Amino acid sequence: MGHVIEHIALELQTLAGMDTGFGRTRGTGEEGKYFVVISYIEEDAGVYAAKAAVRISEALASNTPYDLSEDIQRLREIREDTRLGPSTGCIVEEAAKRGIPHLRLNKQSLVQLGFGVHQKRIRATIASTTSNIAVDIACDKEETKNLLEAAEIPVPRGTVVRTEEGLEQAINKFGYPLVIKPIDGNHGKGNTTNITNWEQALKAFEAAKVYGRSVIVERFITGFDFRVLVINYKFICAALRTPAAVTGDGKNTIQYLIDETNKDPRRGYGHEKVLTQITVDGSTMKMLEDIGYTLDTIPAKGELVLLKTTANLSTGGTSTDITDEVHPANIVMCERISKIIGLDICGIDIMAQDLHTPVNENGGAILEVNAAPGFRMHIDPSEGLGRNAAEPVIDMLFPDRSNGRIPIIAITGTNGKTTTTRLTAHISKSAGKKVGYTTSDGVYIQNQLLMKGDCTGPLSSQFVLKDPTVDFAILECARGGILKNGLAFDHCDVAIVTNVASDHIGLGGINNVEQMARVKAVVPETVFPHGYAVLNADDDLVYAMKKDLKCNIALFSMDENNPRIQQHCSKGGLATVYENGYVSILKGSWKIRVMHVKDIPITFEGKAIHNIANCLPSVMATYLLWLTNIYCQ
Fold first, then answer.
1. Residue range of the domain that includes 46
2. Using CA atoms, how far apart are residues 534 and 416, in angstroms rounded to an integer?
3. Predicted pLDDT at 190
4. What's the total number of domains in the chain?
5. What is the torsional sign of CA 245, 249, 250, 252?
6. Which has the minimum average pLDDT: 16-30, 124-138, 467-481, 554-568?
7. Is residue 103 located within the same domain as residue 63?
8. 28: pLDDT confidence band, cut at 50, 70 and 90?
9. Are residues 239 and 180 part of one domain?
10. Are 432 and 382 in a shared domain?
11. DSSP code of 458?
12. What is the arithmetic mean of pLDDT over 31-43?
């Protein structure tokens, strides 16, 4: 039954648009009880799918009918509620391609890229480099327009009003057609376009006031809706946006045409696919009412019926890439706009007949400058070439191909982990590093105890990696945390395995030392190929881990004559040993005596043999990171 639950849970996620494939089922030694592991893209969806899989399996066993549609729809809703949006998601994916780690800081779109002192943050397409003043300016449409107009950028004539009297004065001044929109709106909310009479203007005024007391009234510019994306003050790409619409065939109703349009396999639920399904809402009904139509109207063959006032993809609109058609003068203009507003990532909305001629010559105008612009229309346009809008963001945040990482030493084993962690942290602090480390008694940041208790799991490690003051992480990784939640990092620079003993056998499905060794081996398996696993040559199970590792190997031993040490060093390998009262580093025929054990307080003048053993991997790990330069940004 465990295998059945596993495969149902995976398939449910796939049917809901989350393609997961990895799963494993293992017996516990107790009849009818299994460990089932499933992969997921969104954790909440994975948990729901697992529970639903149990319900479905029970229904199958009892031959009870079961409707999957409710579970699949709920999984889709969870996916849309919890997944990163397409803009944030593509930036995270681009970071991953470059080996830049990420941590999600909330259930929305706040994401940390990189670790410790090298971290950057994004919230959707606003970055930690983005000016707060610039965002405030962009959110104030009137202030934006004033700045652009002062810089000889073409903008629509208009004004700000608060009352019906002010609205009437604006109409008398500018005439019809008009656009009315909130002064600080976004994503087209509260916008009404192509207003041609007082009744429409009054309705639009009330709709805009829902989003704020002040409302912009400006001339409606005819033309096509274009979006230009500028990142790091450089032109990146441009798209033609078209609102959700249907084209009449002279035979079928508008509702039928909407349903047929939504059958396009490119359209999906929310951000599931390249295009979003068209929904009928109040805005749609108002647009139809304004032209004397209903959903049951049969439009003439070839007639284009607009269903939304704005061209947002999230409301069913489409986009066409026109990057290669943009006139050089328009590129210069857009780059100037980004500098004038001060936005390092901005979307510029332009209404014009085209962009292959200068906007200031073809009667076009700049409608808005947007902070946090959506990337979806550029990365997956309905027509034309997709553009990698995330790449210049990562280039800006992490110049010179840096990966945003800090050195990580991960320490595991049965006994001696905490002492080894403390020793390694002490050596690192003495070298001037701003160390964050986790132990079984707490989390320390720059020698300050910030969390008390057993902090050897991934959440505690994340606490260190999130800290913007830490430039060196030393993370104790215990069996329990690995089994329950894995590791907080994808790769480390050095991993230490102290030993494997029979402690904790019988817990969490680990029934012998060989299984325990397999759990501990997860840590050295994460070492970068250029990094080092520091293994105990006196422990058969630890030493055996080396055969499956793809990184460099360093050994340590309490016996300088250990054959494993001698063989390893004869081939140029590195080792630390206890010899003649000294902690020494060996390589080939040479030896560095680091310190006499009597001068190391924790050994109590060499009497605490177990603490001498703990010193050996600590010395090797810090030696490797500083003297062999294995850590590379």
1. 2-82
2. 14
3. 85
4. 5
5. negative
6. 16-30
7. no
8. confident
9. no
10. no
11. H
12. 89
C-alpha 246/C-alpha 588 separation (Å) is: 77
Do 201 and 257 lie in one domain? The reply is: no
Are 66 and 189 within one domain?
Answer: no
What CATH number should be reported for the domain holding residue 395? 3.30.470.20
In this structure, the answer to whether residues 90 and 61 fall within a common structural domain is no
Q: What percent of the chain has pLDDT over 70?
A: 98
CB 202 within 8 A of CB 196: no
What is the number of alpha carbons within 13 Å of residue 332 lying toward its C-beta? 7
Any residues with CB less than 8 A from the CB of 503 and at least 6 apart, and which? 414, 415
Q: Are residues 417 and 525 in the same domain?
A: yes
Structure tokens of 583? 């902690």
Q: What is the mean pLDDT of the chain?
A: 93
> What integer is the mean pLDDT of 350-356?
96
Using pLDDT thresholds of 50, 70 and 90, give the confidence band for residue 633.
Answer: very low
* DSSP per residue, 136-182: HHHH-HHHHHHHHHHTT-----EEEE-SHHHHHHHHHHH-SSEEEEE
Distance CA 190, CA 209 (A): 8
Percent of all residues in the chain with a pLDDT value above 90, rounded to a whole number: 82
User: Is residue 33 a part of any domain in this protein?
Assistant: yes
Question: Of 347, 380, 400, which one is at a domain's C-terminal end?
Answer: 400
Q: 127: Cβ–Cβ under 8 A, 6 or more apart, which residues? A: 120, 121, 344, 345, 393, 396, 397
